[in-house]
Structure formats: C-alpha cells, structure tokens
User: Fold this.
Amino acid sequence: MSNPCHDDFRRPLNAVVRTCTPVLAMALCFLGPCLPAAAAGKLVKISIPGSSETVAYGINDAGSITGAYGGDLGPMNGFIRTADGTVTTFNPPGSSVTYGYCINNTGVVAGTWFGPQGMPGHGFLRAADGAFTSFDPDGSIDTEPYAISDSGALAGSYEDANYIWHGFARSADGTLTTFDPKGSTGTEPLGINAAGTISGYFKDQDGAYRAFIRAADRSITRFRVSGSPTLVWRINNSGTVVGSYIDTNEMNHGFLRAADGTITRFDIAEDVSTEPNVINDEGVIAGGYMDSKGIRRGFVRRRNGTIKTFHVGDTSETQTYAINTHGEVAGLYFVGARTIHAFLFNP
Assistant:
C-alpha cells in the first residue's frame, strides 16, 4: 500500500554534537494579504556534523528531540538531542539503519531499525538508561511504531509478507495486539493518548482514505469529514484528533474532531492546501500548508483559532512532525536539493 504517511516519513531519509545558534525570528512569508501573519519566535536549526540529513520526528515536554541523521556520508543513525543541545547517537544491537520516531516524557524512544541486509525492519524501544527492546508482530517484515504514551504504550503499523499494512498496539507490559478497521486494505495508526485511544487512517476497499479512532476497549469508530477522503494523525489526552480531508479538487483542508464527535474545519487561507498533523494537550495544532508557488510552509494554530505561519530560512519545504505541551514544534527543512536539517521552533 502506498500512502502519505510512509511517503512523508521516509521521503527525506534516503540515505556528534552541534549546539545550534538560536535565530530569534522566522523568515517572513510574503504570500499576499489573505494569509495569516508570519510568526516571530525562537528557532533552532539542527544539523549533526558529517550528515547531509538530520530529521526531528518527536519531542517531549522537556524539549528532548528524537530523530535520525546520516545520508551521503554514512547510514542513518538514531539520536536524542536534549534541550541544552547535547546529542546522543544510538543504534539498537545489529542495526545498520535506525529511525527514532517518538519520545515520551520519561525519555523512552520508539522507532524502527534495519540490519545490514535491509528488510525486515524491526520495532524498538530505547529506555532512558539506554537499554533496548526489539519487537515485531507475527508475520511482520517491517514494524513502525509511530506514537508512544508516557506509560510506554505504543501504536504503529506493520507490513506483512503480502505488503499490506496493519495496525498494532503494544501495551507497556509488552503485549502486542494487531487490528484493522472493518473494510481496511491498509491501516496506519499514528497517535496514542494516555487512555490508550489510538488515532489514524485506513484505505478502504474502494481505495479511499477514512479516519478511525480505536478506544482502549478495542472498539473502532470510522469517519469521514464532509464525505471526503480523510486522514487523521495525532490525538491528545482530551481525545481530540487532528487531520485533513481532501476535496474534489484534491485540495486538503484542516479539521479537528473533539471526543464528542464535534468537527471544526479550518484553512490557512482560500485556495491553500492545509495539512495539520500534530496537536498538544492545550489544543495547539501544528502542520504544513502548500502555497500558490508550490512551497510547503509551517503553521501553528492556537486553541482560539488564531493562526501564525512560519518558514525556515530560504528553503522550498518546511515540514512539522511533533509538538509538546509547551507548544515547541519540531520537524525538518530542505537546504538545496539534497541537504535536510532539523529544526525546533517555539512561537
């Protein structure tokens, strides 16, 4: 199954310490009067020496980031960058390629590693003391844990021998449960909250994307927004999920869905594709949008609906992947055609 989640996560990653100097203002977005104002804030650009690709995928409330770096000069390695700029490189035993996807408030990282032969890909947990635990659902050839709760529960997807993606939940005690919403031909869980509720999307038998929410009792709610293909990414501890739906002109529009099912739609501006993907417990949302020139930029939406846009430097693309309770946003930006750096932005 080809899907936007794996495209988004893996596209910049084809492929020891730098404390980066904060930049005190984001580049202004001169995109016309209809767009929200560009945000002024604190930006840290992150590039690990010797790498052509540094990507931030997860952030916790202490400001610690996890991700991957490598590229032209070597394989991808996992890393943790603490708030003071200290970087720790890690690789599970036997790994040649490592991606750190998420980090919780106890410092536990989850991600995927590959051996020297490539596939299969294995899921892993890295404890705060550096101890590793690898795991795979039965029949998996690629295990991708994308979200972790503070208790250590995981949500993610795995690929079977027929190249079909299925969802899995892994409890803190290591119990693995696999699942698919009814009618799914490919399942992508992307978020989990403290209650064990999982958010994501799946592809139905007609090839259309639908969102789902899986409760801790294993019941699954499927939904679409406006009857359109719908993608959901993260969920917060209030049970609010965030994502986008796609109209008949293939334009993405943002939405959030409260625990009671109430849906709030929003867009950065008219005729702009809006793709929110993360939400914190304060209701602050971050994501990306594509402007009329085909440049992908970032945005932050406050709980009151106020939207600020941002862009990192002179680049063709800014992608957001994570947000913490304090509203700090982590992601990546492109420098030229082949170089990718991570960023940390506090609006």
About this structure: The radius of gyration is 19 Å.
